[in-house]
Amino acid sequence: MVEITRAGGDVPVATPRWRLVARRFLRHRLATASLVVFLLLVLLAFVGGALWHYSYDVYTPDNSHPPSLEHPFGTDATGYDLLAQVLRGTQRSVEIALFVAAVSGVFGSVWGAVAGLHGGKVDTLMMRVADLVLIFPAIAVAAVLANNVGASSQGWLLIGLVLAALTWPYVARLVRGLVLSLREREFIAAARTFGAGSWRIIFRHVLPNALGTIIVAVTIIVAVAILAETALSFIGFGVRPPDTSLGLLISQNQTAVATRPWLFYFPGLFIVLIALSVNFIGDGLRDAFDNTRSRSRR
């Protein structure tokens, strides 16, 4: 998809849409700064965690030490280096959030596109299923389903699947609403005239035109998944020791707020930074894909 601009005042030039979206996104200073913060946090967690000289699951002889040059985030009562644990927890929380966003984004997009394109009884049945999922109390259902999987070696993947199973209807409803308007457009009618099947229309014509809506929805789900995983781990139904996550660290150290506050506030700070930065990135992407809002600013 392209937009026509003019070079030198006279010659029309076709600008690819992705460049226009990137240009609009970079004009959103808060979103750009948030993207930098999020990427730095991810880089710190995955690269810094591998390079840091302490491991998240190895004791040190320094018990309950406050933040220092040797232990920038301090240590807990058993001697674990909190920086190593926070970096590991960030890794695990980000992995779960991205996995949830990917699975719910793909499944929800296809579900919504199929429902919207076919309409009628197919649409009614498929969206009633989505509505049925939406009425469940997400945290309660996730806690029950994740109760027996968090302690396994691949428990974080299963927790991600549980959260994705409860969040895909949000994407499906957004995509379905957009497809209801797209299916009446000329290019869909032309594709049908030339014998294109439903799946070809969905993957070649519908989903590419819904990409902006999908990206924004998936970005919001990343933030939702971070907070949901934190809540599950906090109440004991998420990631389990010997692994760790940001929510689990807060849960384990909630009683130390008054005596060793660094054990509580550093993991909490990372959760806040990740959630806020992802939300602001979502705002920037929404504005970047919104042609109407972009034109109104000119």
From TrEMBL:
GO biological process, one term: protein transport
Transmembrane regions: 30-54, 96-117, 129-149, 155-175, 210-239, 262-285
InterPro entries, alphabetized: BP-dependent_transpt_permease, MetI-like, MetI-like_sf, OppC_N
Coiled coil: none
A Pfam family assignment: OppC_N
Membrane topology according to the record: Multi-pass membrane protein
PROSITE patterns, alphabetized: ABC_TM1 (PS50928)
UniProt entry keywords in alphabetical sequence: Cell inner membrane, Cell membrane, Membrane, Peptide transport, Protein transport, Transmembrane, Transmembrane helix, Transport
Subcellular location: Cell inner membrane; Cell membrane
Protein name as it appears in the record: Oligopeptide transport system permease protein OppC
Organism annotation: Actinokineospora auranticolor
Lineage per the UniProt record: Bacteria, Bacillati, Actinomycetota, Actinomycetes, Pseudonocardiales
